[in-house]
Write a structure and sequence with these properties.
One of its GO terms (molecular function) is citrate synthase activity. It catalyses: oxaloacetate + acetyl-CoA + H2O = citrate + CoA + H(+). The protein folds into 2 domains: 223 residues, Orthogonal Bundle (Citrate Synthase, domain 1), CATH 1.10.580.10; 102 residues, Cytochrome p450-Terp, domain 2 (Orthogonal Bundle), CATH 1.10.230.10. The longest helix is centred in the middle third of the chain and has 26 residues. The protein has a 3-stranded antiparallel sheet. The chain starts with 22 loop residues before the first strand and ends in a 35-residue tail after the last helix. By secondary structure, the protein is mainly α. Bound molecules: acetyl coenzyme *A and oxaloacetate ion. Acetyl coenzyme *A binds next to α15.
């Protein structure tokens, strides 16, 4: 309950609700840091497996620990047969993010220790979820196309294996590297909506699977991870450079959003977009089709110009803007763009669940329970008197 004069922070923008050692998002400086390491350094030098390890275990892995971690990922990747059988009963037009979200509690069903709330178990479940998210999405894509799921190849890295399990072809090293970098860039982002959802569920001491399923649901929305698919749909709708100005102007003037632009925290640009932009161009060059990169650039410039005119402020592309054209050039189906985000972000969610439940920095995490202002009805000055069914107006 609120008191008169209380300020209502819809969206909790800028309201600190926890301390975290996992990630710094510095909106003013346009800086992103995972456990002390700048994202630019990580994108250039680290693999997704190293980053996932860093997020979960709080340090970069020495060689042997990384080898063990990769072996655990490979060992945990195969899906329970009954889960694959269940996927075969789903309608082919089911949304992939719904499929992914539904599979998370199914994995819990097949884990006899799901209810073990120890830190060791949470870490083990985390590795299992990181291993299986790509397997679930690749299996689902093949099943909906009438194909059998594929087992991973132990000699491939996480990113390359996802592409292999999806397409049945081992990706070329450059494409595999780009996908790996995309996974590094999407792994973590402090208290974004999906991570907050996962932490909020974990704060009730629910298990890792319950928190991860909440994360998937939150990420699916078009204002969050779902924006990458919406960016590509927008570019396809526009279709040609000479239609960009009209499309962007009419959208912004009607008070509608240009997807992939703007950010709740970065007001001077998203550092991940700066890394992804050249990757999107290079993937376009590699496939001999720069059309979507160039169309994106035209949208970005026009949106910034019209936004400045309308609001007197700058707007920049976010991580979802260039990942869209990068994935499209890689041949990833549009409805799998957001699942690719989830395949990476599961590592951040898991690190946050562990922090929330076992490793919180001071002040110690608490069950999330914000307040709300009641603006509903009373019947006069008092609560309403209960009306029996026969006396209610029809
Ligand atoms: C991984 C991620 O989740 S990154 C974000 C992915 N989402 C998108 O790309 C969807 C498009 N972008 C947006 O909707 C927004 O930029 C958000 C929700 C991400 C962040 O919004 P915020 O900056 O926190 O706040 P807010 O919604 O108040 O934006 C400020 C103003 O800019 C406008 N604005 C922000 N982004 C956009 C946009 N992409 N297109 C048009 N207008 C926009 C808002 O409508 C608002 O206008 P108003 O003051 O007249 O109401
Ligand atoms: O932090 C946010 O609000 C959204 C975001 O960029 C992310 O989750 O990667």
């Amino acid at each position: 309950m609120t008191e008169p004069g209380d300020i209502i922070n819809t969206g909790l923008r800028g309201v600190p609700v926890a301390s975290t050692r996992i990630c710094l998002v510095d909106g003013k400086a346009g800086k992103l840091v995972y456990r002390g390491y700048n994202i630019t350094e990580l994108a250039e030098n680290a693999t997704f497996e190293e980053v996932a390890y860093l997020l979960l275990f709080e340090h970069l892995p020495p060689e042997k620990e990384l080898a063990d971690f990769k072996a655990q990922l490979t060992q945990k990747t195969p899906l329970p047969g009954q889960l694959v059988a269940a996927l075969k009963t789903r309608p082919a037009n089911a949304l992939p993010m719904d499929i992914l979200q539904a599979c998370v509690p199914m994995l819990a069903n097949h884990d006899p220790e799901a209810g073990d709330l120890s830190r060791e178990k949470a870490t083990d479940t985390a590795i299992g979820l990181i291993a299986r998210f790509p397997a679930i999405m690749a299996a689902w894509h093949r099943i909906r196309n009438g194909l059998e799921p594929l087992a991973p190849k132990p000699e491939l890295g996480h990113a390359a294996n996802f592409l292999f399990m999806l397409t049945g072809e081992t990706p070329d090293p450059e494409t595999a590297k780009f996908m790996d970098t995309c996974l590094v860039l999407h792994a973590e982002h402090s208290f974004n909506a999906s991570t907050f959802s996962a932490r909020q569920v974990a704060s009730s001491r629910a298990h890792m699977y319950a928190a991860a399923a909440a994360g998937v649901g939150s990420l699916s929305g078009e204002l969050h991870g779902g924006a990458n698919a919406r960016v590509m749909q927008m570019l396809l709708d526009i279709g040609a450079l000479d239609r960009v100005d009209n499309y962007v102007e009419s959208r912004l003037k009607a008070g509608e959003k240009v997807m992939g632009m703007g950010h709740a925290v970065y007001k001077n640009g998203d550092p991940r977009a700066a890394i992804l932009a050249p990757m999107s161009r290079q993937m376009g060059e590699k496939t001999g089709n720069l059309k979507w990169y160039e169309l994106g650039e035209a949208v970005r410039k026009k949106a910034a110009e019209v936004f400045r005119e309308l609001k007197g402020a700058e707007i920049y592309p976010n991580v979802d803007f260039y990942s869209a054209t990068t994935y499209y050039a890689m041949g990833i189906p549009i409805d799998l763009f957001t699942p690719v985000f989830a395949i990476s972000r599961i590592s951040g969610w898991c690190a946050h669940v562990i922090e929330e439940q076992f490793a919180g920095a001071a002040p110690k995490p608490a069950l999330y329970r914000p307040a709300s202002e009641y603006v509903g009805e009373y019947c006069g000055p008092e609560e309403c008197e209960f009306v029996p069914m026969e006396k209610r107006p029809s």
